[in-house]
Amino acid sequence: MTTRATDDPGEFRATVFPFLERDPVLHTILLSNVEQRAEAGPQPGESVFVSVHDESGAVVGAAMRTPGRAVHVGGLDARYAAEVAAGYAEQVPDAPGVAGNRAAAEAFAARWRELRGESATETMGFRLHKLDELTRLQADGGPRPATADEAQLAAEWVAIDFDDEIEGSNLAWAEQQIADGTLWFWEVDSTPVSMVGHHLPIFGVCRVGPVYTPDEFRGNGYAGALTAYVSGEIVASGNQACLFTDLANPTANKIYRLAGYRAIADFVDLRFVR
Fold first, then answer.
1. Is the overall model pTM greater than 0.90, yes or no?
2. 131-265: which CATH number, 3.40.1280.10, 3.40.630.30, 3.40.640.10, 3.30.420.10?
């Protein structure tokens, strides 16, 4: 087994996408992130993308580290994680953590500790779900696409939901989502009460998110109803729908099960303690 590193997302896309597209749901984060960066063009020195190859040279795994982020190992087989960790320890020794399927992330962290002397602490657990058979959930009000004049509201809501973690300008993100037709509001009496977005399809898969409802509107079923509606729109367009849930949020996990989503893998976010 060997690993190869590049800072060129276009080169990485050409190398690993034929492998990743075999399971586009499991690899949804890698696929969508690399696709976006490849379309934007090379930005030397900012990212480190790693492909894993077997003895014949065929790709058997992939990982990425983008500016300021943890290393993402996605659906990497845990048996390759130690070698990938060794490569990243040399190239980005200041990486703040690792995220991905639990087995691979924990194996990566164990090797990182041996090499860097840093332990890892779990900050969040995620569950990846794939839509099986859609069930429409009901709530007062109804769905509609977000409009251009609501970009600022969407930007403010997503900043609250993600602690301003979306890369780049939240306003630019919202404007692009609205232009792409991938951002929706649920409204009651002409008032937006919940918001759901989704990624553009890659290899026939759209990842739903963000999903956000302000505190004062929670407990009314708006997010579940809107997520089910948006998921239906994705399916109607000929694509599959998937989403991540926070394992610490049993309410969300229950709602998405009711909408027809089924769990397929657990992911974890580990932060290195220096």
1. yes
2. 3.40.630.30
